[in-house]
Amino acid sequence: MNKTKIIVVEDEVIVAKDIQRTLVKLGYDVPATAASASQAFEKIEEHKPDVVFCDIKLKGDQDGIDIANRIFQQYDIPVIFLTSYVDKTTLDRAKLTQPYGYIIKPFNEVDLQTTLEMALYKYGKDRETRMSRQQYANALERIEDAVIIIDENEYPTFLNPKAELFTGYSFSEARSLPFEKVLFIPSTNDFIFNGDRYVNNKPAKVITPVNGEHHDVVISISQIKSEKDNFLGKAYILHSMKTDIPVVEKLVNLDNLVINDSFFVKKGSQLVKVYLENILWIQAMDNYVIIQTVTDQFIIHSTMKDIEAKLPTAKFVRVHRSFIIQVDKITILDENTVIVNEKNIPIGKSYRESFLNRLKFL
């Protein structure tokens, strides 16, 4: 297994070598140190590290914050600041670079390892979220319907590209506006309940406030709730009357689509927001899939292949033709089974090797 590779940027040679020596002793790979911005980026390009330790107060034209800012803009590498006392202005500058930790001088071996491991864990989670968000955005770019998701206060939390074109607002602009300022749906429209969502029984009249234009659309409205049945918001899906045939069944479903760190599951007449972190295992059963969370169980009409394709591979692994588990939830492992929350789950022969390669052993 490859060791975590670290570059140390510190202009006090004794301190830099001490950090390097300590990290190597702890089992990490520290191929180089740097004393300036130019050296730092030379070493980053050469060694492509997993983490950069960087002193905030470096001598020269560029300090550690300048270096961290460039790393934030150009590289997907987490930065941990090394610092003694810093004033509020410097600290505020440092925050803008979104560092993954601070180590206060003087520090010890435990400080280094604890901060580093926490940074790696947080970075891994952030990367999963970014990948999930990108996958979801890529999927929605191909959808012909406009999708707008609002929170419980009726402020947008998501617009796909079609919704941005339809409303005239980018998501960054719309997220600070009340929903009615982004899209106004007159109360004169009639909606009927068709089993899992509300749809208009005749073309709905809506207005885009940005330009005052009126549109005829087919609308689907679904409530979004948490696993604990708390109301989180609504999903609006709009099918324009100008394109194709306005058939309600053609409206896209949000069921089982992953958004950031969660996905929506249909439960009765509502969409429930299931957080990936809460999933223990997923089990196939005939033409259905059972999703077991810490507090609840959901049965959806889907296939394991479809569900597996939507889950982040860094977090979930297929261990059997009938089981997907969350790696972080494993409590006990033996040759043929894993135990997750006291449930024995078999490991299939064809999945054993790839599964074991995912795990870390001391």
Descriptive notes:
With 362 residues, the protein is of the alpha+beta class. It is 30% helix and 34% strand. The strands form four sheets. Strands 6, 7, 8, 9, 10, 11, 12, 13, 14 and 15 form a ten-stranded mixed β-sheet that branches. A five-stranded parallel β-sheet has the order 2-1-3-4-5, with helices on both faces. A five-stranded antiparallel β-sheet has the order 18-17-16-20-19.
Topology:
Layout: E1 5-9, H1 13-25, E2 29-34, H2 37-47, E3 51-55, H3 64-74, E4 79-83, H4 88-95, E5 102-104, H5 109-141, E6 146-151, E7 156-159, H6 161-167, H7 171-174, H8 179-182, E8 191-193, E9 198-200, E10 204-208, E11 213-226, E12 231-240, E13 258-259, E14 262-267, E15 270-275, E16 279-285, E17 288-293, E18 297-301, H9 304-310, E19 316-320, E20 323-326, E21 330-333, E22 337-340, E23 343-346, H10 349-357
Parallel strand pairs: 1-2, 1-3, 3-4, 4-5, 11-15
Antiparallel strand pairs: 6-7, 6-12, 8-9, 9-11, 10-11, 11-12, 13-14, 14-15, 16-17, 16-20, 17-18, 19-20, 21-22, 22-23
Instruction: Describe the main β-sheet briefly.
Output: 10 strands, mixed
Strand segment count: 23
Can you give the mean pLDDT?
82
Helix content range: 25-40%
Tell me the number of helical segments per DSSP (H or I, 4 or more residues long).
10
The proportion of residues in beta strands is 25-35%
Radius of gyration: 25 Å
The residue ranges in which pLDDT falls below 50 over 5 or more consecutive positions are 243-252
Q: Look at the helices and sheets and give the structural class.
A: alpha+beta
Give the overall form: flat
Termini distance? 11 Å
